[in-house]
From TrEMBL:
Residues 78-88 have a biased composition (Basic residues). Residues 47-88 are annotated as: Disordered. The lineage of its organism: unclassified sequences, metagenomes, ecological metagenomes. This is Uncharacterized protein.
Amino acid sequence: VEPWIEGRPFSAEPDWEYYAERVAQTLARVTEVFDWDAAALLRGSHQRRLGTDGSADPTPGAAPPASLDTPLTEVGVRPRRRTTQRSL
């Protein structure tokens, strides 16, 4: 740890690993609800969407993400699946 003294140029290289671990420990307290610990935060593994583990691609035929221009009547509406009438 190098001291910072006002008026003097700071020429030391910060220990980025140390600060990354400290930030990960702090954030892990908040993200533990999502089962992310400090090690997972340092690895950078994360899920792509809520409710998924990130390992699988989104379901085919899922509605595209809403934007600011999407009408409220279309938000959260999934396209209907095609069904065929089968007679037994």
